[in-house]
């Protein structure tokens, strides 16, 4: 049966070998009137960075640094999304509040203690995003006072279940708009975007 198939040559894997990662190439420069999808991280093209609810906040911080992201999806053992955690959550008041309430140390603070659970997570719908412009996303993030927005797609074949399809990041959008901003304060961030683009 296999007589027509030659064996391929093999060799030993070299030390320090990396691995391929899915990548999405977003346009370097966009304007407010460009399609919103041109600034969305599409999870059909890029793997989301995940963490478990029971992992420590230091692990979450390290994972963000390692992957160059400011948001992690929090998933359970079945890879179902149970929340999100952002750099603002990690570096802001939330861990300090948990430490004060419980009398514990930072090492004892878990992702579940400070994440935004799914039942409190507002999402955008992919059908709306497909019709939207970059300006709509900037206005939406500014109005919500958020650095990130989660985009869902509804699967009409499976009881209308939602699947997280993409993510918007204020930092990413500002970079693509050609505006240098600090990621710390959201209202100032968008005021700076508007001011710099007005010139």
Summarize it.
The strands form two sheets. A four-stranded mixed β-sheet has the order 1-8-7-6. A four-stranded mixed β-sheet has the order 2-3-4-5. Helix 1 links the parallel strand 2 and strand 3. It is 34% helix and 19% strand.
Structure in words:
The structure is a single chain. By secondary structure, the protein is of the alpha/beta class. The protein has one domain: Roll (CBS-domain). It contains eight helices and eight strands. The strands form two sheets. It has a four-stranded mixed beta sheet with strand order 1-8-7-6. A four-stranded mixed beta sheet has the order 2-3-4-5. Helix 1 links the parallel strand 2 and strand 3. The mean pLDDT is 87.
Question: What brief labels describe this structure?
Answer:
199 residues, alpha/beta, CBS-domain, 4-stranded mixed sheet, 8 helices, 8 strands, 19% strand, globular
* Overall geometry: globular
Structural class: alpha/beta
Please identify the top-level CATH class: Alpha Beta
Let me know the number of strands: 8
Helix-strand blueprint:
Layout: E1 41-42, E2 50-51, H1 57-67, E3 71-75, E4 81-86, H2 87-91, H3 94-102, H4 111-114, E5 116-117, E6 123-125, H5 126-131, H6 134-144, E7 148-155, E8 161-169, H7 170-177, H8 186-198
Parallel strand pairs: 2-3, 6-7
Antiparallel strand pairs: 1-8, 3-4, 4-5, 7-8
């Amino acid at each position: 049966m296999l007589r027509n198939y030659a064996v391929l040559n093999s060799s030993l894997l070299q030390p320090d070998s990396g691995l391929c990662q899915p990548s999405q190439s977003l346009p370097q420069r966009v304007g407010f009137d460009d399609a919103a999808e041109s600034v969305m991280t599409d999870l059909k093209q890029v793997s989301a960075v995940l963490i478990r609810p029971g992992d420590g906040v230091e692990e979450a911080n390290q994972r963000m640094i390692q992957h160059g992201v400011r948001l992690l999806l929090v998933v359970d053992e079945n890879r179902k999304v149970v929340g999100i955690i952002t750099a603002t959550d990690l570096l802001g008041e939330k861990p300090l509040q948990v430490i004060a309430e419980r009398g514990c140390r930072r090492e004892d603070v878990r992702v579940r203690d400070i994440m935004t659970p799914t039942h409190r997570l507002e999402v955008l719908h992919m059908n709306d995003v497909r019709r939207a412009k970059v300006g709509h996303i900037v206005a939406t993030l500014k109005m919500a006072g958020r650095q990130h927005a989660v985009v869902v797609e509804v699967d009409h074949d499976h009881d209308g279940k939602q699947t997280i399809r993409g993510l918007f990041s204020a930092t990413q959008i500002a970079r693509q708009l050609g505006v240098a901003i600090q990621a710390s304060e959201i209202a100032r961030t968008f005021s700076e975007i508007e001011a710099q683009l007005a010139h």
